[in-house]
Amino acid sequence: MYTHRVYYISIISIYTVSSLTYSLLYKHRSQPQWSVLTHSGPVGGGCPAHGAVSRLQARRHFGVSRCLTAKAPPARKPRERVEIPGLERITYAERMHYVPGLAKPVFPDWERDYKDPRYYWSPPVHEMPLYKEKPCYVFNQRTSVLEGVRQALWLTKTKLISGLPPHLISVAENPANQIPDQDERVQNAIKHARFWDTTEERPRKEKYSNTLLINLIHLCATLQSSHPAIGRRILAEKYSLAATWKRGEDLFQIRGQNSLLHNCMDPLPAVSGSQEVADTADHVLETFYPVSPTIDLQKVHVYKEEVNSTGFRADYPYPHAHTLYFLEGADARCKLHPEPFRANMLMFTFGNALARAHKLYGPQRVLDSPVTVQAVGTNGRIFQFLVFQLNTTDLSGDDGIKNQVWLDEDVELYDFAKVRPLIKKKQVKVPAGLAGYKPETFKKFLALYLHGAV
């Protein structure tokens, strides 16, 4: 008799557990598997095994913290104030303290009788004096265009020529234009930037790239005794550039600052002759349809039209831009990839040339004497060399004379600069110190520096 009772109780317990498991599975049948996992029990129900006491258990959410799984409370709707004509709301404004049963007073905004920039409230955009219905597309130093150099070529109506002009490179090949012990001094400049100019284990990239650029410029300036025209130059930084032009039916502007500018008293000579400039009319600009040419440019409605400023006063003794120097990691809040970085170099070189052309020739379309500006970009090891020649300011259409740019990209100055040797499988793959120095890269740097001084 006792055996039969135990058997019946076991049957009832199994039936109860099975019913409870089935009900929980049926309850959670529409939920995803990962949202109902519990600390114990089968997937889908969290049912306690062997008839244990059921209790609520926390669900596991993979990939996010628990604080992010909570549902945000809905935003409170502001109470609608009903104004009844002819009735005056009784408030506690005269009593100057809260009184239950009386309405909250509404006071007018207090306006100061003096200007305080800390509490300035700008008017709506459409009420600003410079507001215009037609948008303007702005390129600044943090713009990262999708199509890179191709997009910059279309925006500036420019023909791309790979490599630097041969007659510029030949300037640095002449022994009379070279620095005494040139290769040794350049390698010492690299070692100073990568190894010696720091109290840490190794300098940061932002630091050694800037140090190396300044060292190379200073090294080139030692030729002033044999090339007096170098003394008619000056370095400037944190200048503000502004240039405006029309491309098709759209209005474009370049605004912002680049890291370093080499100014000179005399303009750079034209790189290509008049016949080569005339031949650019047959060049067909590359398009990137269906991508819009204005992609990634800032669209603004508050702007000044016909803004062209080199960033310096009219009586500045060094009015002509010679070379722009760019550092790839100069802005910690905006790091550009190599392709947008080269597009940034091209756009700001074009902007400096365009602003100078408007100062010299005014509204003249085809320039009698082209404006030439150079640019050098680096990340501390790889260099980008660019020479831009502005032939025309008529950029509205795709036909006619085009501008020209010579671009030599991704030129390595050295292979490795290791504080410690790179060892793999007990073999030294890269020794400590400077390895793989390439003197041809510095010759290109020196050629651009001496352009206009030889």
Automatic annotation (TrEMBL):
Keywords noted in UniProt: Membrane, Mitochondrion, Ribonucleoprotein, Ribosomal protein, Transit peptide, Transmembrane, Transmembrane helix
Location(s), subcellular: Mitochondrion
Transmembrane portions of the chain: 6-25
Gene (UniProt): MRPL37
Assigned GO CC terms: mitochondrion; ribonucleoprotein complex; ribosome
One Pfam family cited in the UniProt record for this chain: PDCD9
Gene Ontology molecular function: structural constituent of ribosome
Family annotation (InterPro entries): mtLSU_mL37, Ribosomal_mL37/mL65
The organism's place on the tree of life at top rank: Eukaryota
Protein's UniProt name: Large ribosomal subunit protein mL37
GO biological process, one term: translation
Family, as annotated: Belongs to the mitochondrion-specific ribosomal protein mL37 family.
